Amino acid sequence: MLKAFWSKYTLSFIRQSRTSREVLNVKDTFFIKIFDSEDPSVVGYGEAGLFRGLSADDTPDFEKILDSCCRSINDIDVDSIPSSSIRMGVETALADIKNKGKHEPFYLGIIPPTLINGLIWMGDKQFMLNEIEHKLKQGFRCLKLKIGGIDFDAELDILRAIRNRYSSDVLELRLDANCAFSPENAMSRLEMLSKFNIHSIEQPIKVGLIEDMAKICSESPIPIALDEELIGLKFNSEKVDLLEKIHPSYIILKPTLCGGFVQSDEWIKVAKSLNIGWWATSALESNVGLNAIARWTASHSVTIPQGLGTGQLYSNNIDSPLELNGEYLTSNADNLWNFTAINF
């Protein structure tokens, strides 16, 4: 018989991280532990990485849902779990148990070297330029810059400085606007940004403006990727309807926010049927969640850079086999898991 428990854990950023919405110093996450009472040495772990202020899961009954899932773990219907992040955590822990607690859900053995983009957080011009230089020295050839949190002219200056030094043949640039533009100024800003040979830009305007977003996608000189727009949609018909209406160039899949792994697979099927590209991105999970996303991503044999470079953000992350070698994320069997910091 399976038994399940959960524990809240506060991750501490090594340094303050800034988006267009907020400044982050700490982030709460929730770990799920499952074991078989007949063989308690086999333990499965998952992470319900609640993203406060963004996730549809940010409700007062979040912990009650965790309690209910743990009590009913032996006959749980994962698809019926109302919380996306809890669904992902339960999926991960059950897959871990199925694999005898080796902590290799979805893809067994060493993760093949997976190309990722470097992530540049918002800050002043000099801070961001220093971060870019650091990432390039590490070997990254694809960088994602979060924009929309400082003066737009300053952001243009940063991009101009980058392109004066690095052509698009040397460095691929992705942008994430985090809904910072308005329908009124989005196209003019996209026109200005397009001068810097941008690969794509995520979510230029806020969620729910379907007609405006569709128009932007059809007219933008930069390929548009949907991110926040995907959050909270549960049914396949909703996914089809959204992507048919907006028809972006790409969708960004964060399993924590997009319904877990089964629903993320559904997003991929719909996107492929409409000739829409995709890549996966972590959503500030610990190494437990990041490992699960990296292994799920590897199971899809991806080739373009993925957004999985968040494993070094925290001073108290969970020790894991994950290993970053330049612009490649992989795993090293010599690096051991250590879950002792989690108090179940």
Structure description:
By secondary structure, this protein is of the alpha/beta class. The chain folds into 2 domains: 2-98, Enolase-like, domain 1; 114-331, Enolase-like C-terminal domain (TIM Barrel, Alpha-Beta Barrel), CATH 3.20.20.120. Helices cover 31% and strands 23% of the residues. It has 9 helices and 13 strands. The protein has helices at 62-71, 84-98, 125-138, 152-165, 186-193, 210-219, 236-246, 260-273, 287-298, and strands spanning 2-18, 23-36, 39-48, 114-115, 118-120, 142-146, 172-176, 198-202, 224-226, 250-253, 277-280, 322-325, 328-331. The strands form 3 sheets. The protein has a 7-stranded parallel beta sheet with strand order 5-6-7-8-9-10-11, covered by helices on one side. α4 (152-165) links the parallel β6 and β7 (172-176). α3 packs parallel to α4 (152-165) and α7 crosses α8 (260-273). It is globular, with a radius of gyration of 20 Å. The mean pLDDT is 93.
What secondary-structure arrangement, pairings included, does this model have?
Blueprint (H helix, E strand, L loop, with lengths): L1 E17 L4 E14 L2 E10 L13 H10 L12 H15 L15 E2 L2 E3 L4 H14 L3 E5 L5 H14 L6 E5 L9 H8 L4 E5 L7 H10 L4 E3 L9 H11 L3 E4 L6 H14 L3 E4 L6 H12 L23 E4 L2 E4 L13
Parallel strand pairs: 5-6, 6-7, 7-8, 8-9, 9-10, 10-11
Antiparallel strand pairs: 1-2, 2-3, 4-13, 12-13
Features:
TIM Barrel; Enolase-like, domain 1; single chain; three-stranded antiparallel sheet; globular; seven-stranded parallel sheet; alpha/beta; 344 residues; 2 domains; 9 helices
Strand residue percentage? 15-25%
State the total count of DSSP E strands.
13
* Separation of the first and last Cα atoms: 19 Å
Summarize the main sheet.
7 strands, parallel
In spatial order, strands of the major sheet run 5-6-7-8-9-10-11
CATH architecture of the largest domain: Alpha-Beta Barrel
Going by CATH, what is the homologous superfamily of the largest domain? Enolase-like C-terminal domain
| String of helices and strands | EEEHHEEHEHEHEHEHEHEHEE
Number of helices: 9
Low-confidence stretches: none
Number of domains: 2
Assigned CATH class of the largest domain = Alpha Beta
Helix content: 25-40%
